[in-house]
């Protein structure tokens, strides 16, 4: 092969590689590739509100925002939730009272478990009987 032919093939290979590499970024730029958002990079910020008193001083950069929850309290609120018993309307209170929520049996879970206890315990399967045919041996072969 001559030097010109080797150089031409090298240049063509480089152009082909660059063209193929550009296909992926082009499809992403045109919106043809699916880009999934990263849930760990989402930042929640409290909404901006206009204070009712315009004589308040503006917050300094880096100062904590008073309306924003601290991460610990936000996590606690997400896990436990809030009790909105004080914020219930009269209609909701009446509905709860008519449903008899205060007269519910607190031990109902135990009653249901006792009634359906035989359904929860399955018999030993055929494979378990064959594998563990010795009563004291529970190691798999």
Distance between the termini: 66 Å
Q: Describe the global form.
A: flat
Number of helices: 6
Percent range for β-strand residues: under 5%
Helix content bin: 40-55%
Q: Keywords for this structure?
A:
141 residues, mainly alpha, 6 helices
Describe this structure in words.
The protein is mostly helical and 141 residues long. Helix content is 46%, strand content 0%. It is built from six helices and no strands. It has helices at 3-29, 71-80, 90-99, 108-115, 117-120, 126-131. It is flat. The mean pLDDT is 77.
What's this entry about, in short?
This protein is mostly helical and 141 residues long. The chain has helices spanning 3-29, 71-80, 90-99, 108-115, 117-120, 126-131. 0% of the residues are buried.
Question: How are the secondary structure elements laid out?
Answer:
Blueprint: H1 3-29, H2 71-80, H3 90-99, H4 108-115, H5 117-120, H6 126-131
């Amino acid at each position: 092969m001559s030097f010109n032919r080797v150089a031409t093939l090298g240049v063509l290979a480089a152009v082909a590689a660059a063209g193929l590499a550009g296909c992926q970024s082009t499809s992403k730029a045109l919106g043809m590739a699916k880009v999934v958002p990263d849930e760990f990079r989402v930042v929640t910020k409290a909404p901006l509100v206009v204070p009712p008193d315009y004589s308040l001083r503006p917050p300094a950069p880096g100062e904590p925002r008073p309306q924003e929850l601290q991460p610990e309290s936000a996590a606690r609120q997400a896990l436990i939730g809030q009790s909105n018993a004080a914020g219930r309307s009269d209609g909701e209170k009446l509905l709860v009272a008519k449903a008899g929520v205060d007269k519910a049996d607190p031990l109902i879970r135990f009653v249901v478990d006792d009634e359906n206890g035989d359904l929860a315990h399955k018999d030993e399967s055929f494979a378990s009987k064959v594998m563990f045919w010795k009563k004291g041996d529970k190691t798999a072969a």
